[in-house]
Specification:
The chain is α/β, with parallel strands linked by helices. The protein has one domain: Rossmann fold. The protein is built from six helices and ten strands. The strands form three sheets. A six-stranded mixed β-sheet has the order 2-1-3-6-7-10, sandwiched between helices. Strands 4-5 form a two-stranded antiparallel ribbon. Helix 1 runs parallel beside helix 4. It is globular, with a radius of gyration of 16 Å.
């Protein structure tokens, strides 16, 4: 991996979701750690809740180099048609991918939402890798974990209790990448996505991680 790596992180708490903001901050801190260690990683960009709007995504995309690698991370609601719910609107995969593709040709899209696989209505001309937390019929699960300040050291969330709500997929994705020090994203498919923890989550929570690339 010799390309610069940019990341845009979106976390949108709405209605009955309480951990999406925390999910996004977890991923921000993980990628920020990689940014400190690896010259190819650029400082991550994060938007939370009311700032999760298409205009902010486009504004951030304009800052990246054309031939770089782009990671888009989203935690929030998705409906049964596969539309992601930003703060002020619902967007289909074509809505988002047709915009993103103007700025990068090497895209990772990581989605922690219900019915995640439904979002994979891709434009065949776009080279993209998906990592999604659910199949087209599954709901994503949130769990309580022990709050540790170091998990939020770079973009801190102050909690008054010793527990915090996060998405189960994002939490273990974070833990595996951090423990394995996998800032080389070429290694994610084999070293992260084949981890036995996903089998356990699928068995206990009926939530199956899914990886797809269209090239």
């Amino acid at each position: 991996m010799n390309e610069e790596i940019y990341s845009i992180i979106l976390g949108n708490n709405q209605e009955d979701l309480f951990g999406s903001e925390n999910d996004a901050v977890l991923i921000y801190n993980l990628f920020y750690t990689f940014y400190l260690k690896d010259e190819y990683w650029k400082k991550p960009i994060i938007f939370l809740n009311s700032d999760v709007i298409l205009e902010n995504l486009i504004y951030s995309l304009k800052k990246i180099k054309k031939n770089s690698t782009l990671i888009i991370y989203f935690s929030g609601h998705s409906n049964k048609l596969g539309y992601l719910k930003f703060y002020n609107n619902l967007y289909s995969s074509n809505d988002i991918l047709n915009i993103i593709n103007k700025f990068s040709e090497n895209i990772y899209f990581i989605i922690d939402s219900c019915f995640g696989k439904k979002f994979l209505k891709y434009n065949s001309n776009i080279k993209i890798r998906y990592i999604v937390s659910t199949t087209e019929i599954q709901t994503s699960k949130e769990i309580l974990i022990n709050y540790k300040k170091q998990m939020f050291s770079h973009k801190n969330i102050i909690k008054q209790t010793d527990k915090i709500v996060v998405g189960i997929f994002t939490f273990y994705f974070y833990k595996i990448l951090l423990s394995e020090n996998l800032q080389n994203i070429d290694e994610w498919k084999n070293n992260v996505l084949n981890n036995e923890v996903w089998f356990i989550i699928n068995k206990n929570y009926n939530q199956k991680i899914f990886y797809y690339q269209n090239f």
